[in-house]
Inverse folding.
């Protein structure tokens, strides 16, 4: 199996890039953030506090999260229900980041991710893919961009969808989430020693894709 790991902070463009690379290579794209988001949604729906680690450990075991593919798109199932349309809100973003510090949550989802990578050639994106989920990946990329650029991209996406938003609030949210993701005790976001650093601040999507395709070859 050929495995490509793409890690980096929120809004660096990981999913757009990983999806395109997977398409060009004919691999399966695995969006691990969507799994943490489904878990965040489950905890929110059950009115669990992000601070209650013990209850998160216990309750998270009742969430059956799985992945299926429909027309080439990843669909996340939470206890059999397609939750793709519910996991992209700011509320779920924050809950998924908060609950992803939990060791029991991570253990459950990492096992699922490793199983997927054993069964197929994958491009997997997340925070800990190169460092923890697939330490033996054939190619590891650490994709980043400045927080200003990432906030601007998110702002453009949201305004294009007609959503009202404030760029300063988005930037603050991104920076808080970065801090939490990088400073948690278990598998924090960091560049693996053997990962290639790609800073996309001044690059177009196409340039980033080309760069990674070259690295694959
Ligand atoms: O990539 P994303 O924004 O969809 O991820 C949502 C949250 O899930 C992110 O803030 C941290 C967590 N996450 C993680 O801890 N490990 C991963 N491999 C992917 C995401």
């Amino acid at each position: 199996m050929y495995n490509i790991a793409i890690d980096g902070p929120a809004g660096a463009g990981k999913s757009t890039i990983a999806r395109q690379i997977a398409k060009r290579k004919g691999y399966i794209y695995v969006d691990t953030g969507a799994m943490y988001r489904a878990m965040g949604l489950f905890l929110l729906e059950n009115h669990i506090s992000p601070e209650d680690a013990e209850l998160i450990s216990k309750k998270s075991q009742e969430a059956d999260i799985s992945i299926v593919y429909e027309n080439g798109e990843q669909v996340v199932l939470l206890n059999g229900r397609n939750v793709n349309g519910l996991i992209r809100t700011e509320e779920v973003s924050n809950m998924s980041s908060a609950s992803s510090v939990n060791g029991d949550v991570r253990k459950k989802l990492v096992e699922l991710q490793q199983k997927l990578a054993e069964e197929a050639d994958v491009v997997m994106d997340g925070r800990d893919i190169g460092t923890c989920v697939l330490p033996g990946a054939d190619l590891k990329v650490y994709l980043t961009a400045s927080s200003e650029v990432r906030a601007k991209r998110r702002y453009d996406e949201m305004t294009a969808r007609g959503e009202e938003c404030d760029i300063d609030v988005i930037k603050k949210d991104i920076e808080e989430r970065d801090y939490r993701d990088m400073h948690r005790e278990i598998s924090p976001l960091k560049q693996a020693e053997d990962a290639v650093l790609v800073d996309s601040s001044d690059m177009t999507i196409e340039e980033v894709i080309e760069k990674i395709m070259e690295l694959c070859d």
Observations:
- The pocket of 2'-deoxycytidine-5'-monophosphate is lined by residues 10, 32-33, 36-37, 96-97, 100, 126-129, 177, 181 (CB under 6 Å).
- The mean pLDDT is 95.
- The chain has two domains: 1-27+121-217, 33-119.
- The CA atoms of residues 102 and 188 lie 11 Å apart.
